[in-house]
Amino acid sequence: MITIAEIEAAADRARGVVRRTPLLSSPVLDEIAGRPVFVKAEALQHTGSFKFRGAWSALSAMDDTTRARGVVAYSSGNHAQGVARAAQLMGVPAVILMPADAPALKIENTRAMGAEVVLYDRAGGESREELGETLQAERTLTLVRPYDDPMVIAGQGTCGLEIAEQAAALGVTQATVLTCCGGGGLTGGIATALAAKAPGLHVRPVEPEGFDDMARSLRRGEIVRNDGPEVGLCDAILTPAPGNLTFPIARALCGPGLVVSDAETKAAMRHAAARLKLVLEPGGAVALAAALFHGDMLDPGPVIATLSGGNVDPDLFAAILTAG
Amino acid sequence: MITIAEIEAAADRARGVVRRTPLLSSPVLDEIAGRPVFVKAEALQHTGSFKFRGAWSALSAMDDTTRARGVVAYSSGNHAQGVARAAQLMGVPAVILMPADAPALKIENTRAMGAEVVLYDRAGGESREELGETLQAERTLTLVRPYDDPMVIAGQGTCGLEIAEQAAALGVTQATVLTCCGGGGLTGGIATALAAKAPGLHVRPVEPEGFDDMARSLRRGEIVRNDGPEVGLCDAILTPAPGNLTFPIARALCGPGLVVSDAETKAAMRHAAARLKLVLEPGGAVALAAALFHGDMLDPGPVIATLSGGNVDPDLFAAILTAG
């Protein structure tokens, strides 16, 4: 388990680099949800997702010699961009392993940030973990894991520190905080920060239908893997199972998980565009979908939904916008 | 001419109500422009455009008796929503005159904010000014003009106060500030604020091709009207001529106007979605278009582009996203 001191140290290292994202709202969303809804607009973070927080935290916590040798990461896209940009800003090499079927925008952006992108064949059964270990060994790069790394979780926790401050400024001391949940780094980081700084704000993770490994793991009290397909609409958060570091945090601090359908996620994306003027990717919209359409599963009172990313291919986004 | 004291008073009245919008950036935009580009994300303002600032300023400056009788406004949409929302928050009636061919999203949003919407036939030659005066007289409503009102200009100027502070925090003391320019309220308000608070930030208004009344008026030294069609892509900023109050401010404080094509505006909208995760309407993207594609017309150094609104119909937005 990480500590609030580690999150505060990550926030110190992030000062002047990581963006403080706004907490937004819209009366139309309040009306749909039947309660006050606030959104933490992490799609506005550098690289278009919260992942830059964790990447910056991990790289800035390394000793100079280790960092100078370079880093390697595997990711369907958002962690890739976060690590690539952090490495670029620090002037160190980054190699990113990405599935060949990742969204084109994410691959293109990662390359544009100066990283060496190595594509692997996810469908054909190539293992990114094995590829990553080979690269680590051959090139003495340091692996930056997408969520099961204490410094990455601490970095994501800086988002929770901001939520605590922003909610307090609005007079909101009791609320449900919905997180878009893949491996649980954002969920665990925010939950740790809020437990220390705003204990009336209670985190509940949200996942897409068919990829509810965190919700089922929380119900069972132990890590359960998804056994369905590996690809789906919400590419950013389709991890096979909660992490070994993140699950104990979620188990200790979070309420039951929520599950939303792809149709609800798409509707949330349309509302975010029309009401908040934000471009969200599917995986970044599941928490808003739960806020808007699953209020019956939540305690009364305000909801704060993290909008965790906006890296969606324009053609897909356009198709979703016009399908409403 | 309005004073910095009037803008600061508007900022005092706006505290806790008007949103402080972020100043964002993206390395990809810097690369396209060949210089640092910052954007003031007014599409994230309440009601999706900067117009809420001026509307709140005007209504909050009225005496209680006048305000309680209600307000009337004419607008193709963004001023309408700003006035409707300010009136709703203050609990006073609002009647909004809108052209029947305004974007459906703007009409729908204005109604959703509790305003009475009266549609008029712009193409058929109905005069919104005459309709507005009739309503004013019959119902003792107070007209809130879209830009030629000192309290409205002062409210838009609060955006300039924020730009001055945010640029200073980044160490930017010399820059070109590009404003999306319709009647000149935002341009005049920001220019007045910056002249007092950040004199190294120099405003230049940006307009769409065929609607460059401000640019031509600045060249001629007197107000010149557009003589072309009244409708076009950038519906939010297609005013017939600079205002009687706003033009003298622009003449005193702003550099030459810039003109962008509709194709450049659409490209700027695509970049804003892909890189900044912001939904912009065409009229809210002209300043970014000038920053990205007309650098040869600008002094060297950083550019700050206002992104003034995001109220675009989803079908149009989707069509623009996929046309790139």
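The domain at 4-49+150-323 of chain B is CATH 3.40.50.1100 (Rossmann fold).
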